[in-house]
Predict the structure of Glycosyltransferase RgtA/B/C/D-like domain-containing protein.
Amino acid sequence: MSDGGMAAGGKPCGYGVMFRIAMAFVAISVLVLLAAPVLGLRARIPLDYNEGWNAYAAMRALGMGGGPLYPAPGGLIANNYPPLSFFVTGCLGWLLGDMIVAGRVIALVSLLASAGLAGAIARRCGACGWGALAAVLLPLLYVGAFSHDYVAMDDPQWSGIAIMLTAVLVFVSGPSDAAGRPVPGAARLVATAALMVLAGMVKHNVLSWPAAVTFWLGAGALTRRDGESWRRLCVWLVGGFGFAALAVGLCVLAFGPVFLTDLLHHPRVISPALVLGGARRTSEILSLGLVALTLAGSGARIRNGGLLAWAAFCSIVWSLIQRTGEGVTLNAWFEPLIVLSILTGVALSVAAGRRCVGRGAASARWVSRIGPAGLLGIALVPFLIGSWTLLPRGVRQVADLNRNVRAWNVFIDDVRREPGEVGCFMSSVCYWAGKDNLIDVFNYSEYVATGGDETAFRALLARPDLSGFVLPACFARHCTGRRDAEMRRQEALLVRITDDEQAGPLSPDGKLRLYRAVR
C-alpha cells in the first residue's frame, strides 16, 4: 500500500492495515485525552501552581496592581521568567476578562501549533504523510496521557516551544547539499536566530535547539574546513548574540537592573537526586528513543539527520540538568519529546520504504521485517500499558466537569467572602476570589531554604487585614503520607498558620483547605 508520499530515501511509502488501525486508535485517544481540558478552558478549576502565578504576573505587566513585574529580591513575590508572555497574556486577558482563561487559550493553541510544527519539520527531514502525522499525534498523545495538567494550562512553556519550532522549520526549509545537510544562507540564519531569541523571551529554558544548531554548524566548520561553513557559523553566532544582547538590553531599560538579578540569580534548591525522580515519569522518551535509534542502522541518508541527532542529545542533557532544580517538573522533558517524535516520524517512513542499503544493512533488514506498524507499537508501549486507566479517566473528566465546576465555585466563594486579604498556596483560587497576591509560596520557601531571612513573611502574618490562608491540606500536622523535601520545606515555613488558625472548608478535590485567622 502507498499513501502517495515518499520515504526518506525516495522510495514509495508502504503502510499496512494494522498501521492505519493503530494510527486511528492514537487519533481517537488524543481526542479523548484532550476533551476535558478543551471543554474546561473557562472552568474555574485550578490545574497547577503556575496558573495563578502567571495570571498575577500578567496583571502586573499591564500595571493592574500588585507591584512591579520584577520585584526586588527578598520579597514575598518573585519573578524569574522573561516578560513577553505576560504582556501577550495580559492583553488577551484584558479582552476576555480572565487572565487564566487567556493563558489557557494561548497554551492550548501553542500546544497544537507545536505538534503541527513537529510534523512539518519531520516532513522536511524526509518523513512522508503518515510518518509526519505520527510526529504530530505522538506529542499530543503523551502530553495528554502523562502530562495532563500541561494541556491548556496557563503557562508559557508551550508558547516558547512553538516559537522555537517555527525557527527550526525556517532553518530546515532551505536548500540542502547532496549529503542531506542544510546549507542556509545568511538571511535564513539571521531569521532563525531572531525567532529563537524571541522564543527565549517567552520562556527561558527552551535552549536545546539553539545549542543543536550551534554544535551542528560548528562541527560542519571543523570537519569540512571550507570558508563557506565558517562564514555560516560566524553569521549564526553574531546574529544570535546580537539579538540576545538587544533583547536583554531592552528589558534592562524597561525594568531596570533588577530584571537581570531576578532572572539570573533566582534562589533555588539544586540537588542531583531530583533527576532520578523526574526520570521515572519519562517512559515515553525511552520508547520513542528506541524507535529513533533504528535510523542509525537503516543505511538511510536522512535529510537534516545530523541536526536532529544533535537536537536529541542536547534536549536530553538539558532536561537532566533542569531536573536538578526544585520546581522543574515534566515540562523539562517536552523538548526531547518533540525531537524524538520527529525522529520517530522519519523512522516510520524509512521502515515503510523498505530501505536496506549501506552500512548496517542487517539491522535495517530486521527493522524492515518489523515494519512501520511494529515500530509504532514500540513507540506506543507506555501508553498501551496505561491506556486502560488513562482513557476512562479522560471520559470521567468530561462527565464530571460541570459538577466539579459547581463545587469549586462554592469553595472560591468561601474565600471571596473572607472579610480581609487571603494568602493562597494555589494562587489561582485567590485570583478568582478577587484577592490580592500576597505570597508566592514556592519561590519564597526556596529563598528561605537558600539562606534568606523570613522578615517579609513575619510582616505578612502581622498584617491586621489578613483573614486567612488557603494551603495544602497535607500541611496540617495530622496529615500522613509521603512528602518530598520541597513540600516539607514549605510546610516548615507555613506550619505556624496551620497551628494557629482555624481550619475551614476543604476544596472539592480534598487537596486544599481554607485556614481562617483567629484574632
User: Anything to note?
Assistant: Residues 503 and 515 are 5 Å apart (CA to CA).
